[in-house]
Amino acid sequence: MERLMLKRFGRGVWVLSSIFVIAYLIYVLLPLLYPFLLAWIIAYAMNPCVHLLQRSLKLPRWLAVTLSLLLYFGAALLILTAAVTRLVKELIILSQSFNLHIDTWMEWLTAWMQNDSFQNIINEISRFYQNNPNYHDTINQNITRTTQTIGTAVTDLVTSIFNGILQIIYYLPNLGTILIVVLLSTFFLSNSWERHNRALIRILPGVIRKPMIYIFSDLKKALFGFARAQLILISITALIVMLTLYALGVDSAFSIGLLIGLVDLLPYLGVGIVLIPWSLYAFMSGDLTLGIGLTVLYSIILIVRQIMEPKVLASSVGLDPLAALLGMFVGLKLFGILGLIVGPVSLVILDAFHRAHVFKDLRNYIIGGRFR
């Protein structure tokens, strides 16, 4: 009995050790191999187009892959160029509008500082300062400390902006190299797709071949489903913002809606970072219509996001809505904002392992020494 328990314990330790080694290898190798992983994803996405060109036009595989690459990357480049061009135009208009509003803001600030209530506060502070000479040093030290803190914060902000610009410039050549590697890898992978798949299947031991096919199939579905879900949610947010801003008569509604849609990649925080300060400014400047409109807009986006996110994620990734919501909540608590992605993806991986009977096979191996 003791010998049997020792064997089971040894097999359990072996399984856990193997899991940790695999996780460590993924952690170490992923930063080195991500261009090839990205190339594999693009090649997988291009396969329907490649097969269509081969069947309909009777093209050789290499020519169909080349045309598909040109089509996919050309379309992506065209869309990106059009979006950036439109965004730059809108930002130029927005900056011109901002310059026109500076005088209005200065007049509002001057009027607010000349307000009787504000002047009374200043007079009370001055009177307190004059009547309490014992507090002069403390007050002066606090003023100096506050000024230094503000100056340090501004300096850090400017430094971080310049460092970010320098990092972008520094990584541009590296980005070009990565793009070339991705393009070439995509071509070679797609051109020999079936051969690579057969070679990979032959490498896998027979006992794990079928489970791995199930797992890879579910992970591919989850990967593209998650990207589709995020694209749907961002598009919904951007469309709601654009239509609302157009209805409110706000200039540069397209660029603002697009930017807010991109910022919405940070759920629970992104939209509020833009709309809450904007609505507060609108109320303070006396534009009640805009302030109320932005407040209602923020509420609508928040409600739509909370309702749609679990459903869209569940339908796209293949999870039950309650399970998707649970995964998002647990991921948020454990990993922060990144957990909103890690949580559902982890559930998909665990579900794929369960459907492929991986846990059952590991249990059978630990107890009886065999996977089946």
TrEMBL record:
<feature type="transmembrane region" description="Helical">
    <location>
        <begin position="254"/>
        <end position="276"/>
    </location>
</feature>
<dbReference type="GO" id="GO:0055085">
    <property type="term" value="P:transmembrane transport"/>
</dbReference>
<feature type="transmembrane region" description="Helical">
    <location>
        <begin position="168"/>
        <end position="189"/>
    </location>
</feature>
<comment type="similarity">
    <text>Belongs to the autoinducer-2 exporter (AI-2E) (TC 2.A.86) family.</text>
</comment>
<keyword id="KW-0472">Membrane</keyword>
<feature type="transmembrane region" description="Helical">
    <location>
        <begin position="328"/>
        <end position="353"/>
    </location>
</feature>
<feature type="transmembrane region" description="Helical">
    <location>
        <begin position="62"/>
        <end position="84"/>
    </location>
</feature>
<dbReference type="InterPro" id="IPR002549">
    <property type="entry name" value="AI-2E-like"/>
</dbReference>
<keyword id="KW-1133">Transmembrane helix</keyword>
<feature type="transmembrane region" description="Helical">
    <location>
        <begin position="288"/>
        <end position="308"/>
    </location>
</feature>
<dbReference type="GO" id="GO:0016020">
    <property type="term" value="C:membrane"/>
</dbReference>
<feature type="transmembrane region" description="Helical">
    <location>
        <begin position="229"/>
        <end position="248"/>
    </location>
</feature>
<dbReference type="InterPro" id="IPR014227">
    <property type="entry name" value="YtvI-like"/>
</dbReference>
<protein>
    <submittedName>
        <fullName>Sporulation integral membrane protein YtvI</fullName>
    </submittedName>
</protein>
<keyword id="KW-0812">Transmembrane</keyword>
<dbReference type="Pfam" id="PF01594">
    <property type="entry name" value="AI-2E_transport"/>
</dbReference>
